[in-house]
Amino acid sequence: MRVLLLGTAAGGGFPQWNCACALCKSGATPRTQDCVAVSADGVGWYLINASPDIRAQILANPALHAGPGPREIPIRGVLLTDAELDHSLGLLMLREAGGLPVWAPPAVLHALRDCFPVRDVIDGYGGWEWLPAGSSLGSLRVSVLPVSDKRPKYARSSTVEGPWVVAYRIEDPATGGVFVYAPCLKTWPDGFDEFVADAGLVLLDGTFYSPGEMSGATASGVSDDAQHVMGHIPIAGEHGSLRRIAAHREAGSTTHWAYTHLNNTNPVLDPGAPEHSAVRLAGAELPLDGTEYKL
Ligand code: MLT
Ligand code: MN
Ligand code: ZN
């Protein structure tokens, strides 16, 4: 299985267009918004999430280019972890595909019809199929782990029950390769340690480095618990994800752990920052856009 990281930043990307903080002005490598493509054979590809940057991401990755027929594309469908705008706006950009299957948790399918009517809009451009997050993507096997009840701001008045956010475990029966994708984690969820067992790659929520980051020097004045309300576990700290990774590594896990969905406030974006080194020393990766893993 090939896993291609199309984008690795949180909503707004890096640098963020409306931000003049030191990090956004630092010249650190830009990152587009979180999105992944997976393929069993390198011919047909499935997107996991559809970022607003999807057009540029497709053009930047030859594996996703159109061809060989004049209107043939290698993208076979889209799997969504949640209904956030940074993970779903790309569906509008994909309208020229003339229809693709889209798999998502039921609450997400509801939000994209009843709170933000993307489905109605793009159904007018072709035969889209809207399906509950399934058990397969072609020959790849998919399992789903509900991870949080955090709904998008635009769906805050929805009374539909979650889960609103899930993680996916994707297995290639031909190679035994396992990829776990969890770009939005409010906490380290129940059952997650088992869910990642034997994974070759776990791509995790790296939105924030520290628990108080959004109230720090680069911030917009939101309160300390805003990050938790936003549904993102920090990397560092007592309740952070890096400690969990360390525990897996101490137990002998050979999994590659990598962070995605990095917010523009996250100091790990700067390769010269001590926080970047701390993550790397703890055995986790901070891959750039365009990084590919083979599992
Ligand atoms: C999130 O990851 O919390 C959301 O994408 C925030 C947003 O609306 O940009
Ligand atoms: Mn997001
Ligand atoms: Zn900034």
Labels describing this entry:
Coenzyme PQQ synthesis protein B, seven-stranded mixed beta sheet, binds manganese (II) ion, binds D-malate, 23% strand, binds zinc ion, transport, 295 residues, 20% helix, alpha/beta, PQQ biosynthesis, Metallo-beta-lactamase, Chain A, globular
Would you write up a description of this structure?
There is one protein chain. This protein is α/β, with parallel strands linked by helices. It contains nine helices and 14 strands. Helix 1 links the parallel strand 3 and strand 4. The chain has one domain: Ribonuclease Z/Hydroxyacylglutathione hydrolase-like (Metallo-beta-lactamase, Chain A), CATH 3.60.15.10. The chain starts with a strand and ends with a strand. The strands form two sheets. A seven-stranded mixed sheet has the order 6-5-4-3-2-1-14. It is 20% helix and 23% strand. The longest helix has 10 residues. The chain binds D-malate, manganese (II) ion and zinc ion (ZN). Zinc ion (ZN) binds next to loops. One of its GO terms (biological process) is pyrroloquinoline quinone biosynthetic process. Keywords: PQQ biosynthesis, Transport. This is Coenzyme PQQ synthesis protein B. Pfam families: Lactamase_B_2. Belongs to the PqqB family.
List the helices and strands and how they pair.
Blueprint: E1 2-7, E2 35-39, E3 45-48, H1 54-60, E4 75-79, H2 85-88, H3 90-93, E5 101-104, H4 106-115, H5 118-123, E6 129-132, E7 136-137, E8 140-148, E9 165-172, E10 177-182, H6 192-195, E11 201-205, H7 226-230, H8 241-250, E12 256-260, H9 274-281, E13 284-285, E14 292-294
Parallel strand pairs: 3-4, 4-5, 5-6, 10-11, 11-12, 12-13
Antiparallel strand pairs: 1-2, 1-14, 2-3, 7-8, 8-9, 9-10
The site of manganese (II) ion (MN) has 5 residues, from loops.
